Amino acid sequence: MNSASSQRKKLTLKVILLGESGVGKTSIINRFVNKKFSNCYKATIGVDFMKKQMTVDGVDVTLHIWDTAGFEKYQSLGSAYYRGADCCVLVYDLTSAPSFRAIESWRDEFLVVSNPSDPDDFPL
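The chain above was modelled as a monomer; its predicted structure follows.
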């Protein structure tokens, strides 16, 4: 079997969303993966996981998207979730200055675990 789809490159990426509780991480993921949006708030307990498959420039890409809880009591679990992440999306609420200020601490926590070669060049 030599079909074009079986010969395409495949790529799997781990993406995590970080931010304070209630900023919309779950809503962003639901909109992206399921093309649905809900105004109902339901807190994520620990971590949730969704998968999105797509083709980008002829490459079959599978995104494993991790939706982390923003509650402080779950932040200690973070390092286990961050390991092996290819992408980190920092999320804040436009109407909440405290959620924007908290982005720096989420960024710093991710950098400690992911250990990039030059954390000063990590975009924010």
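The chain has a mean pLDDT of 78.
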